[in-house]
Amino acid sequence: MTELTLDVAPLSPSDLPQIEKLDERAFGPGRFTRTAYRLREGVTPVASLSFVARVGTFLVGANIMTEIRCGSVPALLLGPLTVEPAFRSRGIGERLIARSLEAARASGHSLVLLVGDEPYYQRMGFKRVPPGRLSMPGPVDPMRILICELTEGAFESVHGPVTRA
């Protein structure tokens, strides 16, 4: 099989309609009921921290970063991380996350939150939020709330509700 060249680039506003179609294929209509979508709804992604992956002109993955607050502390919400189903298990998601975390760290951000599977995200520096430290709007499995400290110790005194920035 021929190797495909993957191009990872910053998000452009013109990418948003393609990302919406990708999210629809990957997650279906139920995605709108998820707690993380409530935090992102109507909020413009941080384009300089969000990335898309393409093979040629075909969008095969995207990672969105949105500004939030964890209690009184500014943070970022990672997600959705979406990879075209036919292109999964090829490291695309990890490359997108690595670029977003690198850009966030370089921009002076200290915390990134997400709702996801710990076994997948822990290899990229995420760990489970201790029970009771953060509360999110709507139902969410507390075992799936994960945090990544971009600055050592940044999460030590953080607690409270997770809200839009």
Main features:
165 residues; 9-stranded mixed β-sheet; 32% strand; globular
Uncertain regions spanning at least 5 consecutive residues: none
Proportion of beta-strand residues: 25-35%
Number of domains: 1
The topology string of helices and strands comes to EHHEEEHEHEEEE
Estimate the helix proportion, in percent: 10-25%
For the record, the CATH architecture stands as: 3-Layer(aba) Sandwich
The CATH class assignment is Alpha Beta
Query: Termini separation (Å)?
Result: 46 Å
Remind me, CATH topology?
Answer: Aminopeptidase
Can you tell me the overall shape? Answer: globular
Largest β sheet strand count, sense and barrel closure: 9 strands, mixed
Q: How many extended strands?
A: 9
What is the fourth-level CATH superfamily?
Answer: Gcn5-related N-acetyltransferase (GNAT)
Radius of gyration, CA atoms, in whole angstroms? 15 Å
Q: How many helical elements?
A: 4
Helices and strands in order:
Blueprint: E1 6-10, H1 16-27, H2 35-40, E2 51-55, E3 58-70, E4 73-83, H3 92-106, E5 111-115, H4 118-121, E6 127-128, E7 134-135, E8 145-149, E9 160-164
Structural summary, described in words:
The chain is α+β, with helices and mostly antiparallel strands and 165 residues long. It is built from four helices and nine strands. It has helices at 16-27, 35-40, 92-106, 118-121; strands at 6-10, 51-55, 58-70, 73-83, 111-115, 127-128, 134-135, 145-149, 160-164. Strand 3 (58-70) and strand 4 form a beta hairpin. The termini are far apart. The mean pLDDT is 90.
